[in-house]
Design a protein that fits this description.
The chain is of the alpha/beta class. A six-stranded parallel beta sheet has the order 5-2-1-6-7-8. A three-stranded antiparallel beta sheet has the order 9-10-11, with helices on one face. Strand 9 and strand 10 form a beta hairpin. Helix 1 crosses helix 7. It is elongated, with a radius of gyration of 24 Å. The two termini are 20 Å apart.
Length: 329
Amino acid sequence: MRPLEGIKILDLTRLLPGPYGTMLLGDLGAEVIKVEEPERGDYARWNPPQINGVGSRHLLLNRNKKSLTLNLKVPEGKAVLRRMVEQGADVLIEQFRPGVMERLGVGYRDLEKINPRIIYCSLTGYGQDGPYRDLAGHDLNYIGIAGVLGLTGQKGGSPVIPGIQIADLIGGGLYAVIGILSALMARQKTGRGQYVDISMLDGVVSLLPDSAALYFAEGKAPRAGERRLGGGLPQYQVYQTQDGKYLAVGALEEKFWANLCRLIGKPEWDEKIPREGDPRCEEIQKELARIFQTKTRKEWLGLLMNEDTCVSAVQSLDEVFEDPHVRSR
């Protein structure tokens, strides 16, 4: 038996953040009913690439859900939603801008009157209050305001857009799951549901403990490519190999650094591990870049990967899905 079996969720979200979160809840056993507007439905249905006329991302994110078309702009549609809530829905999650559900007459205060046990999660870019609450936005906007973009990239370079949607998936979808699970646990004690306000911006800001701790301790904002986990150390860096592929080197601790230095023929570097601000950092990084260009990625992995060096491949997605460890898990 999966832990959320018997829990019914009404999912009024679309595209990526909410559907990702409800997918996880469905994986845990919840019955998820995806509620879509007539005609167009979830925009992800039509986004390319498609499989048999349906967007592949939509198929992945909604693989474990039931589907219902409902027009919440007409009385009949609102009545159906209210009836589903009244008849025992445990959770409702929506992703409209603040105030939309209230104007439709199906906000939290409206629905808790007919089902005091309902857990109502609103997932938005900026939350239900604050100066930005009504602004439009996408993942890039949220991570930009949160400071993540300003911490990415090489020293002196432009910010680099991450390859995944950090705000949508973590700040939004995953934090919504945490909020909903917490509310379900609280309901076991109190017998009542509650309102869960998830802001993707808030979620991303909470992912900055290392940078924030440095800032509050030193009073100086970290910049891209300067701090220990952001590209400021040669032993925590990405290097290109002879065949144009890349290695991720994470030899932060002394024992890993010592093993790496020995295996690449630089035992003298082991006498003192580089620290932030060490004038040797730039010189060592340049030399490491030169050394890693002398062999292919496969050759370096054969030499380093199983020797406690914290060196691994930077893989493309086709390699990821063929990786023996990924497949075994």
